[in-house]
Design goal:
Elements: H1 3-19, H2 36-46, H3 51-64, H4 68-72, H5 76-83, H6 90-104, H7 113-117, H8 124-135, H9 144-153, H10 164-174, H11 180-193, H12 212-216, E1 232-242, E2 245-250, E3 261-262, E4 284-293, E5 298-306, E6 318-322, H13 333-348
Parallel strand pairs: 1-5
Antiparallel strand pairs: 1-2, 2-3, 2-6, 4-5
Helix pairs in contact: 1-11, 2-3, 2-8, 8-11, 9-10, 9-11
The structure holds iron/sulfur cluster (SF4).
Length: about 350
């Protein structure tokens, strides 16, 4: 490590000791690392998700499944329901697959980045984070916060995503042999608390005198390629109620929101972007449109209420679910929004 990289990492570690965030899945600086199960669980949950959103889910999961063996033995539907609302549901399916693989190896996570990377659902970021934080391995941990800090520190002007290789090389060079896990968390915390996307607080930053990005205008970095407009997909979902219960289905295991309970729908997940929604004949009433953003498209989901007998859209995959227990169904956010819309309409009509 060159002298300036060593200065940066030493200052960041000292700053982390004094100002690092206290989070439920962390050990305080200078204490033994947390159980790898906890590090892994938190890092999977934190992919694309904020610490504030993750904290209650993490606590609930740990209470219910306190070890990787306990999680491996859980019922798939229970885990999917417990994950409901956290989004990116492929993570929950991979979480179970990974827990089962680790349990089959005697309940011990492998302790190298390469072996961790071979587990289900562990990409480059998660494998590096678990290796560094749980096992003290020197690994370059690069999430969005770390990416921003490194791009600013060195004023790296190549637009993302092409610029990622140069950012990773800088983070690798900065990562110390001692305390690599604390260093990774220091970079994450600097990005989350001081080196924020807007209005970074450079005056409080421990490396401000070494930061090339600060001199060049910090908010310019990282430079991002122009975004393409997001496609908008359209579809329908069906609200079918009988005797105080609503008809819910379990979605196919593979695909969008796979394995989750949901309202029946017209298969928008497989539909062409921008395709028109066919009108429904019979006793159907439009209740409004729910808008929801997925990672690669926005969805406009028209909610249709059924008011006849023997709805033709009931099929063998479904179940009648009591409306007064709908909170316990584990619906993903899209269908929670749809259910709220339907219930608000029913309340307006005095039903
Ligand atoms: Fe970020 Fe400012 Fe610190 Fe540079 S000086 S790393 S831009 S907070």
């Amino acid at each position: 490590m060159d002298a300036s990289a060593e200065t940066v990492s030493n200052r960041l570690l000292a700053w982390y000791d004094a100002h690092g965030r206290s989070l439920p899945w962390r050990s305080p600086p200078g204490t033994p690392p947390p159980d790898p199960y906890r590090v892994w669980l938190s890092e999977v949950m934190l992919q694309q998700t904020t610490t504030a959103a993750v904290a209650p889910y993490y606590t609930r999961f740990l209470t219910r499944w306190p070890s990787v063996q306990a999680l491996a033995g859980a019922d798939d539907a229970e885990v999917m329901a417990a994950w409901a609302g956290l989004g990116y549901y492929a993570r929950a399916r991979n979480l179970l697959a990974c827990a089962r693989e680790v349990a089959a190896r005697g309940g011990r996570f492998p302790d190298t980045e390469a072996e961790l990377r071979a587990l289900p659902g562990l990409g480059a970021y998660t494998a590096a984070a678990v290796a560094a934080i749980a096992f003290g391995r020197r690994a370059a941990v690069v999430d969005a916060n770390v990416e921003r800090v490194a791009a600013r520190l060195y004023a790296l002007a190549d637009p993302l995503p092409q610029g990622r290789a140069a950012i990773r090389a800088r983070v690798e060079a900065l990562t110390p042999h001692a305390r690599p896990g604390d260093f990774a968390q220091a970079m994450m915390d600097l990005g989350a608390t001081l080196c924020t996307p807007r209005a970074p607080r450079c005056a409080a930053c421990p490396v401000s005198d070494l930061c090339a990005g600060r001199r060049a205008g910090a908010e310019r970095f990282p430079v991002k390629a122009a975004r393409k407009a997001r496609p908008v997909r359209q579809g329908q979902a069906y609200w079918i109620v009988r005797d105080g219960s609503v008809w819910l289905v379990t979605r196919a295991a593979r695909g969008m929101l796979g394995g989750m309970r949901a309202l029946p729908d017209d298969g928008w997940a497989a539909g062409a972007d921008g395709s028109a929604v066919a009108p429904l004949a019979g006793p159907w009433t439009g209740a409004g449109t729910v808008r929801h953003s997925f990672s690669h498209f926005d969805l406009e989901l028209q909610l249709m209420l059924y008011s006849g007998d023997d709805c033709p859209r009931l099929d063998a995959t479904g179940e009648w679910w009591p409306l007064d227990r709908l909170d316990c169904a584990g619906l993903p956010t899209l269908f929670v929004k749809a259910a709220r819309l339907a219930l608000a309409q029913a309340a307006d009509l005095g039903e």
